[in-house]
Amino acid sequence: MTDRSAALAQIAAYFDEGRFLEELTRRVAIPSTAQVPEHRDDLYRYLGDEIAPLLEEMGYACEVMENPVPAGGPFLVAERREGEDLPTVLTYGHGDVVRGLEGEWRDGLDPWRLTREGDRLYGRGTADNKGQHTINIAALRAVLETRGRLGFNSRILLECSEELGSPGLNEFAEANRERLTADVLIGSDGPRLKPEAPTLFMGTRGAMNFELIVDLREGGHHSGNWGGLISNAGTRMANALATLVGPKGEILLDDLKPQAIPNSVRAALAGCEVDGGADGPEIEPDWGEPGLTPEERVFGWNAFEVLAFKAGNPDRVVNAIPARATAWCQIRFTVDRDPETFLPAIRRHLDAHGYQDVGVEQGMRKVYMRATRLLPDHPWVQWCVRSIETTLGRGPMVLPNLGGSLPNDVFANTLGVPTIWVPHSYASCSQHAPDEHMLASIAREGLDIMTGIFWDLGAGDTPGAEAEAA
C-alpha cells in the first residue's frame, strides 16, 4: 500500500467507523445561526470551543478575531506553516447557519439534532456549511497523521456571517492580507452539478437584491365605490414588472443581460448537465433566455427573479383597492456586467415606460456579492482535475462559475488568489429550508477527494513548483 493509499484508507475508516457522524453531530447541535441575534454567543462557541481546539491539536496556530463590522460575526484564522519554499493553500468555510425554523421540519426531525435516514443526514448546517468544512478538516488531519506533515503551508479561514451576506469579510481580508494570502484557495460550499458527479467550480454568479415599491396614497379605498376611478398599486406593479421580465422569465431590458457567453465558457458547459436529483424540480426547457441550453442559462447568463410580491393584505383580504405594493427582486449576474449599473438602468427604463410612480430601492442591506470566474484551462484547475481522476478513476464536471453566489470576490479580487471550489452537497439539499440534509454518499466520496487533493499538494508537483522548475 502506498502512502497515498494509506491516507485514503484512513479517511475511509474515519467515515465507516462513525467518527465523521460523531463530529458532525456535535457541530450541528450548536445553534450557530447568524440570523438570530440571541444566538451570537453560539458563533463564538462554534469557532472557539469546537473548531479551534481540534486545529490546535493538528499543529495550527488559531485566533478568533472580531469582525470590523459591528453586526458581523467573528472569524477564525488558523495557520500551520511548514516551510518558506512550500506552496500556501487557503481553505474557507463558514460556521454560521440560517435560522433553524424549529417546528417546520417534518415529524421526527429537529434542526439541531443530526438524524440519519438511509443516505440522508438531516440537520441545520449539514450541507451549508458545517458538513463541508468538517470533510476538509478531516482530510487535512488524515494527511498529517499518515505523512507526519502536510508538505505545504495551510491557512484556514472560517467566518460566521456568510448567511448575512458576509458583512465585514472584505474589510477583514484587506486588513489581514498577509495572514490570508495564498497560492490558491481550495474551499467547499454549494452543490455538485449532479449528485453522483464530482464537481469543480471556480467562481460564482453575483447577486443583487432590490425592491420595487409603488406607494400611491394613504390607505385603501372601497373597490365598489372607487374601482375604475383610482389606480391600483398591485396592477401598476404587475405591469411594471412585465416590462422588465417576460412571461417565460426572459430578461427584457438589455442593460441587465450579459454581453455574450465566451466561447471557452460555452465549451466548458457543453459537457455538463444540471440534475437536482430525485427530489429536485424538473427543468423547464422553455424557461429563461431563448436559444440557450439549461447549463448556459444558469451558469453563463443573468437571471431576474421576483422573490416575493405583496399588494394590500394577503393574510386578510378586504374589498379595498391597495394603495401600496412591493416586489422583492433579485438579479443573478455573471462577470460580464457591472452591478452598479443595474438600478440606474431600471430607473431609466421605468421612467421611459411611464412608471415614474414605481420606486427602485436597493433595500436595507445595500450590499451585493460580485461575480467571479476562472476559466477551466487555468493550471490550478487542471491540477485539481488530475488529482480527482487519480483518486476516483474518473474526472469531475468543471464549471467556470456556480449559478449561486458566494463571497468569492473577496478571495479572487481583494486577495488576488486563484479560487477552486469542490462542493460536497447537491442542489436538492434544502439548505435554507426545513429538512436540510447532506447525502452520506457524497460526504464519503468528498472525504476521498479532499484527502487526495491535500496529499497531492504536499507531493511537490503543484503548478507553482512546476513554474519554479521551469
Terminal-residue CA separation = 32 Å
CATH architecture of the largest domain, please? 3-Layer(aba) Sandwich
Radius of gyration based on Cα positions: 24 Å
Low-confidence stretches: 465-470
What would you give as the CATH superfamily of the largest domain?
A: Zn peptidases
Helix/strand/pairing category: alpha/beta
Could you please describe the fold and organization of this structure?
The chain has 470 residues and is an alpha/beta fold. It folds into 2 domains: 3-204 and 370-469, Aminopeptidase (3-Layer(aba) Sandwich); 207-258 and 302-361, Alpha-Beta Plaits (2-Layer Sandwich). Helix content is 33%, strand content 18%. The protein contains 15 helices and 17 strands. The strands form 5 sheets. Strands 1-2-6-3-7-16 form a 6-stranded mixed sheet, with helices on both faces. It has a 4-stranded antiparallel sheet with strand order 11-13-9-14, covered by helices on one side. Strands 4-5-17 form a 3-stranded antiparallel sheet. A hairpin with a 2-residue loop joins strand 4 and strand 5. The two termini are 32 Å apart. Residues 465-470 have low confidence and may be disordered.
Short description:
The protein is an alpha/beta fold. The chain has 15 helices and 17 strands.
